[in-house]
Amino acid sequence: MSVEDPWSPFREVMESPLEWARTWKEKTGGKIIGHVLPDVPEEIIHAAGALPVAIEGAAVQASHALGHIPTYSCNHAMGTVEMGLRGDLDMLDGMVIPYVCDTTRNLFHIWDRLIPKMHNEFLRLPKRTDHSMARDYLRAEFERLYESFAGLTGKKADAAALAESVKLYNASRAKLREAYARQQTNPGVWTGERVRLLLDSSLRTPRDEHLAWMENLPWNDQSDVAAETIRIYVRGKVWDPPGIAALLDQMGFTVVDDETVTGYRAIAQDAPLNGDPIEALVQRHMATIPYTGYHVEPRKMTGDFVDRVKASNARAVVFLNPKFCEAAAFDTPDFQKALQEASIPSLILETSARGVSTSQISLRLEAFREMIADDLP
Amino acid sequence: MQRIESLKNIKQITTEYFTAAHMAGRTPDKPVVYLNVFTPVEIFYAMDIFPVYPENHAAICGARKVTKDLAPAAEGMGYSMDLCAYARCDLGWIKTGMSPTFGLPKPDLLVVSNAQCGTLTKWFEVLSRIYNVPMFLIDVPHAGRGEKDPAAERYVRNQIEELIKLAEEISGKPLDQERLKASIQLSKQASALWTRMLELGTSKPSPMTVFDQFVSMFPIVSQRGTQPAVDFYAAVVAELEERVKQGIGGVDNERFRLFWDNLPIWPELKSLSTYLDENGANLVTSIYTWAWSMLSVGEEDPIGDWTEQYLYTFNLHMSRRVEQYTLLAEHYDLDGFVYHSNRSCKYLSQDIPEVRDAVTERTGLPGVIIEADHNDPRLYSLESMLSQLDNFLELLASRKKAN
Ligand code: SF4
Ligand code: SF4
Q1: What is the C-alpha separation between B281 and B4, in angstroms, rounded?
Q2: How many angstroms does the Cα of residue A259 sit away from the middle of ligand 2?
Q3: What is the residue-wise DSSP string for B340-353?
Q4: Ligand 2 touching residue B120 (CB < 6 A)
Q5: pLDDT tens-digit profile of B278-292?
Q6: Does the pTM exceed 0.95?
Q7: Which one of A35, A41, A81, B141 is most buried, counting C-beta atoms within 10 A?
Q8: In this structure, are residues A59 and A75 in contact, taking their beta carbons and an 8 Å threshold?
Q9: CA-to-CA distance for A82 and A73, rounded, in angstroms?
Q10: In B, which residues are within 8 Å of A72 by CB distance?
Q11: What are A15-22's contacts with CB under 8 Å, separation 24+?
Q12: Torsion angle, CA of A282/A284/A288/A294, rounded to 10 degrees?
């Protein structure tokens, strides 16, 4: 690790995250549990004594997967199958696939058949966020997950260990939130790209180490002044295509808030520390902005979204919608209409679309920026 | 092929149903509820709330080949071509007003369960905003690998109880238990007749094809819990029993007995059934039509039965499906499987390659995957579908010869 460059440990992880995890395993002999993101409680995996590692298939080109999952599936699923078949994930001791949509349901089936030796868990997240029994159900699911992974690692699924993990993850999230906010005050140092690096690497490294690395970042560097940028709000699944954050930086956009599962949404809520830690995780889950695959009162959904955008003071919205993602495709037209009614411009980028290049995306962003600039009073 | 005469009644039944639906839509004290299949329709019949199935209407649009006008209209509203073609047809008719049934009455309530796909939830959310009406989701957790899940049972049961309260509010009267029992009775009778109809397919030759089953689905979907559904299936079963006695098959010369996986390709019912008939291939059973045989509940604890059903019967792990297919292969003495990889129904299609391989491993029977769509003819080519089927039937013929 370079002492001069405090960003380098994060960069090292993200240059080849799966290799980094493999090396970590060789060095420590620890267990690794992969998860396909939305709302898998990493604290539970950590408390069970394993390293949680996010598996993102969005940018993976499929070839082996083609005979096993139809091409009309989103790349998150196809890419994951591809990595599994290529052996890229053979350092994983376990895998969690969350039930957020029909595709992850089918991914679980496919995974069970193709990778049967792995300890696979299907985390059945309730789709209702407004129901007291949904909390009760989620609690039972979290308990089941904890027992299952403690069984895998040979640890006891006890509340004290989980409370420690909750504390650690809360501390990490607090630091990440601070970094996220710096994008607005010190955008020269805390670029969107760098903040993404922090967030992405946090999902793939031991959180205590990651937190220690973050301490070395230039928190006191005030050399930079806020530049004139276009403040945007982002909604989508993950930050895809790779390099999108850097592209937004280059084009003079600042992301002031986002609802992606690897973005601000993932760090916005802490789990309250004053009681039962499983309950705390349930509370955190329910307080988090609902993922697109969940159900909320439909007539409130669009208005609430517009309110969140307005509260962020963003001037425009960018949707990062994965190709073949039904949930996002059903939501977006009404969301966009509601934004229009509130005079907030928006742009839909269909991401993970095979055959769409970064240069095409950059052209669209450029046109969008010009359109917003023309709109200024 | 010799037609099944009693199936002709379906036209009359459908006409009467839609007339009643439109009447309900115009009668202030007759609320209309939109539903999907895995919801307790008997409750609504017992409360004089008229049930309407947008999926069913969309299937009619597909079979009457109006998708090509409706789906682009939905796409014009911003809904991607990758979305379920039923949903696009439904949104398209709302936009254009074009529909073979003069559309659907405006709903007062939307009820959906995700024991089926997640798509319906998102589709109904859009409808809730369009019509500005409440929506109730019965959230049914996936059954994992089939293990009992008491927390899920509590969750589902509680939601059905809440749904009854909501229905009482909407209809302005309490649920009459006697009427519920009567509706459950009729529903049970219809389900039993439907099951008998499917069972008759085990005869050789099978007296009906899966295409006939698709054509006859309307009452079991929309009118479970009513007398017309019972009468219709009683007539069909009587005729099929007679056909079995006389050795009349669903296709003229039954050489191959096949299984159909997934939804029908509604716009191609005629072309596919003609092609298969000409080639002596009879689709004798399908997991899709079997679903409706599992929908009846008892009068003692219907809420408990619905809970069990939604949780443990439909949204199953692939391995359970493979077991069912294996049993059906034996029960129907099948020669092979035809899997419809249905482009805009991801829920039923994404695991097909693995299902096919697993079923072939278990049964030794070959399976062909045809790429199509249940409702949007712009998403497939009939020629390539038929050429895939040609190759498959040749393979089956050579297997028969070798045996
Ligand atoms: S991107 Fe959409 S379709 Fe794909 S896994 Fe996520 S929610 Fe499901
Ligand atoms: S066709 Fe498939 S996606 Fe569409 S409503 Fe039916 S099950 Fe859902």
Answers
A1: 18
A2: 27
A3: EEETT-HHHHTTHH
A4: yes
A5: 999 999 999 999 988
A6: yes
A7: A41
A8: yes
A9: 12
A10: 82, 343-344, 346, 349
A11: A17/A53, A17/A200, A17/A201, A17/A204, A18/A53, A18/A83, A18/A88, A18/A89, A18/A91, A20/A204, A20/A205, A21/A51, A21/A53, A21/A91, A21/A204, A22/A91
A12: -10
Contact A292, A261 (CB under 8 A): no
Choice among A353-357, A364-368, B17-21, B217-221 with the minimum mean pLDDT: A353-357
On whether any CB of chain B is under 8 Å from the CB of A295, the answer is: yes
Length of chain A: 377
Question: Residue A225: its pLDDT value, please?
Answer: 67
pLDDT averaged over 10-residue windows placed end to end, chain A, 377 residues: 80 97 98 97 98 95 96 96 98 98 97 96 95 95 98 96 98 98 91 97 98 96 77 93 92 95 97 94 97 95 97 97 96 98 96 79 94 71
- pLDDT at residue number A1: 45
Residues 272-331 of B with CB under 8 A from A: 315, 317-319
Cβ separation B144–A124 shorter than 8 A: yes
Closest to B79 (Cα-Cα) out of B91, B96, B67: B91
How large is the ipTM? 0.97
Contact A327 B144 (CB under 8 A): no
B159 chain-A contacts, CB cut-off 8 A: 128, 131, 133
CA-based nearest residue to A287, from A173, A129, A101 = A129
Angle at B282 between CA B276 and CA B285, to 5 degrees: 130
User: Does residue A98 have its Cβ closer than 6 Å to ligand 1?
Assistant: no
B104 CB under 6 A from ligand 2? no
Average pLDDT over chain B, rounded to an integer: 96
Query: Which residue of chain B has the CA closest to A101?
Result: B118
